[in-house]
């Protein structure tokens, strides 16, 4: 088997990384706590969509200027993410803070099922029904609910939508299936966009045939939630994912082959912070939806039942 694939599989099941020597307070804090620690205000808002209680984090204004911003931005994270992904590089290098200081109301959404949006009004979190969704439902139900909520608070302002990876998939799916929401947006920005995915280079594609085999069984009989089992003995075989070992360890190979290699853009001091804010929990159906697209020459399509 390809060594990179083995490393990738280990990485997916080995989310229990070795404790770092020095610790950065952001490792253990929640998004609102991290934002407050850096001197900004963070509010938490809850939008209910099909019973899912979606948490939005909002920075209402700039750090040193209390004036009410005139512009609004909504940031949507990607697969295995949450709102933390917009703030972890700190005030100077993270989009959420930069936009707040540039005069935006900054909203950060969290998709159903991630650590901030786990709640549901009536479904049990380990039930098949709870995890019966892919990015389609997020695009068709949740994102319109979020846009309605933001519009309701500040009806005059058009919204700049910024989606990373699956966050852009959600945007494209919503705008094509519910075109009335085009008028809510001033602009749509797609970072590492994902719609037609024929040309994807990440080794994650090697997992797609596995996903297509495993997902239907898991969705029906197994754990309906995709959450890689945390297994501590595996860490004996993988070199530690700490800043001290980063340059020499397989951790770096794994991250760079998965996410793209760019040493200059990657602050390895923050590695333990990034690792602690990964949100691996999602639905099998989300992964299967992407796998079906890869299997069909990267076509941008509805879930195939
Ligand atoms: C990396 O992050 C640490 C911790 O926030 C910070 O002190 C350091 O300046 C950052 N390095 C670079 C090159 O940005």
TrEMBL record:
SUPFAM superfamilies: alpha/beta-Hydrolases. InterPro entries: AB_hydrolase_fold, AB_hydrolase_lipase, Hydrolase_4. The keyword Lipid metabolism applies. Residues 1-23 form the signal peptide. Pfam families: Abhydro_lipase (PF04083), Hydrolase_4 (PF12146). One of its GO terms (molecular function) is hydrolase activity. Residues 32-90 form the Partial AB-hydrolase lipase domain. GO terms for biological process: lipid catabolic process. Residues 94-211 form the Serine aminopeptidase S33 domain. Keywords: Glycoprotein, Hydrolase, Lipid degradation, Lipid metabolism, Signal. It comes from the Eukaryota. The keyword Hydrolase applies. Belongs to the AB hydrolase superfamily. Lipase family. This is Triacylglycerol lipase. The lineage of its organism: Eukaryota, Metazoa, Ecdysozoa, Arthropoda, Hexapoda.
């Amino acid at each position: 088997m390809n060594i990179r694939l083995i490393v990738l599989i280990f990485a997916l099941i080995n989310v229990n990384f070795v404790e770092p020597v020095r610790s950065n307070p952001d490792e253990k804090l929640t998004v609102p706590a991290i934002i407050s620690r850096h001197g900004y205000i963070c509010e938490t808002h809850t939008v209910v969509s099909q019973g899912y209680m979606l948490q939005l984090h909002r920075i209402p204004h700039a750090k040193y200027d209390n004036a009410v911003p005139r512009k609004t931005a909504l940031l949507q994270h990607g697969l295995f993410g949450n709102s933390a992904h917009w703030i972890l590089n700190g005030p100077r290098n993270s989009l959420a803070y930069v936009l707040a200081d540039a005069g935006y109301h900054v909203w950060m959404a969290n998709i159903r099922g991630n650590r901030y949006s786990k709640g549901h009004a009536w479904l049990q979190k380990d039930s098949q029904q709870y995890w019966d969704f892919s990015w389609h439902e997020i695009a068709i139900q949740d994102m319109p609910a979020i846009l309605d909520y933001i519009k309701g608070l500040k009806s005059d302002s058009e919204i700049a939508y910024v989606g990373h990876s699956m966050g852009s998939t959600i945007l494209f799916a919503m705008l094509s299936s519910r075109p009335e929401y085009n008028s809510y947006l001033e602009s749509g920005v797609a970072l590492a966009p994902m719609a037609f995915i024929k040309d994807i280079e990440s080794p994650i594609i090697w997992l797609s045939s596995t996903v297509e085999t495993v997902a239907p069984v898991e969705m029906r009989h197994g754990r309906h939630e995709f959450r890689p089992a945390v297994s501590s003995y595996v860490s004996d075989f993988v070199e530690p994912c700490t800043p001290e070992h980063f340059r020499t360890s397989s951790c770096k190979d794994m991250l760079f082959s998965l996410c793209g290699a760019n040493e200059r853009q990657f602050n390895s001091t923050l590695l333990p912070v990034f690792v602690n804010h990964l949100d691996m929990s999602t639905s099998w159906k989300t992964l299967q939806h992407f796998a079906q697209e890869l299997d069909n020459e990267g076509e941008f399509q509805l879930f195939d039942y």
